[in-house]
Amino acid sequence: MRVLRVFLVLVSLASSTSGQEVYDVVIRGGRVLDGSGNPFVKADVGLRGDTVAAIGDLSKASAARIIDAAGKYVVPGFIALHEHIDHDILEGNGDLPNFTTQGFTTAVLNADGRTAVWPVSRQRAEMEKAGSALNVVMLVGHGTVRSRVMEDDFRRPATAFEIAEMKALVREGMGEGAFGLSTGLEYVPMRYSTEEEVLELAREVAPFGGHYQAHLRSQGQYAKWQLPSYEENPSPRSTPSWRPSRSRSSRAFR
């Protein structure tokens, strides 16, 4: 008799939820920013596991957890495209509240043409061991592969053989889980590379659906081609092509 009662209860519960969508989490009544260009769409969001399963009117759905988002914005996780938090994560500071509390869920690492740990497979293993609150996207650094191939003799264009060696390293990094190539052409040793070299390396990430990320140049008061970065750090006055500006900001450097 006891078994029969339990069976009847289960049948009753099944009948009450028949035809009703069930989610792990439902975020109700939020202003959903979906990237379509609209200011927002008022909708509910249903989650199953870590997947957005439905967006729309889920007023009749049930969920283990319901979040009231009335008057709040609901957005996909933000992606930080250019970050220098590699060493923070590897040193055990992977909680990164300054990112997570602002809605970031992913960070792109190894910017400016520098891969923090080589090879990429080792960096990936160390990142997984250290742990991070963010998903991390690793890039192959142009400067890293150039340094490994040319060592200290980098103040010149690379030969065809050296470019081929760099391309092999880029392919290696992509095969080990990198998402693309980063460069910083105002920085040493990349400032001595040719257009051909950059194009050849960038072509290696294309078969992987890779991403090419270039650091901007000449963002400061002095053009980077006038002042080599991170090498000898000459003063502006020692650069032959330097001319003082008449602006008030330039006089502060005199």
SSE map:
Elements: H1 2-16, E1 22-32, E2 41-48, E3 51-56, E4 62-68, E5 73-74, E6 78-80, H2 86-90, H3 97-100, E7 104-109, H4 120-130, E8 135-138, E9 140-141, H5 142-150, H6 160-175, E10 180-183, H7 195-205, E11 211-214, H8 248-251
Parallel strand pairs: 1-4, 1-5, 6-7, 7-8, 9-10, 10-11
Antiparallel strand pairs: 1-2, 2-3
Describe this structure in words.
- The protein is an alpha/beta fold.
- The chain contains eight helices and eleven strands.
- Mean pLDDT is 83; it is low at 1-18 and 234-254.
- The relative contact order is 0.09.
- The longest helix has 16 residues, at 160-175.
- Helix 5 (142-150) packs across helix 6 and helix 6 (160-175) runs parallel beside helix 7 (195-205).
- It has helices at residues 2-16, 86-90, 97-100, 120-130, 142-150, 160-175, 195-205, 248-251, and strands at 22-32, 41-48, 51-56, 62-68, 73-74, 78-80, 104-109, 135-138, 140-141, 180-183, 211-214.
- The strands form three sheets. Strands 1, 2, 3, 4 and 5 form a five-stranded mixed sheet that branches.
Give a quick rundown of the structure.
The chain is an alpha/beta fold and 254 residues long. The protein has helices spanning 2-16, 86-90, 97-100, 120-130, 142-150, 160-175, 195-205, 248-251, and strands at 22-32, 41-48, 51-56, 62-68, 73-74, 78-80, 104-109, 135-138, 140-141, 180-183, 211-214.
Which key terms come to mind for this protein?
254 residues, alpha/beta, Urease, subunit C, domain 1, five-stranded mixed sheet, three-stranded parallel sheet, disordered N terminus
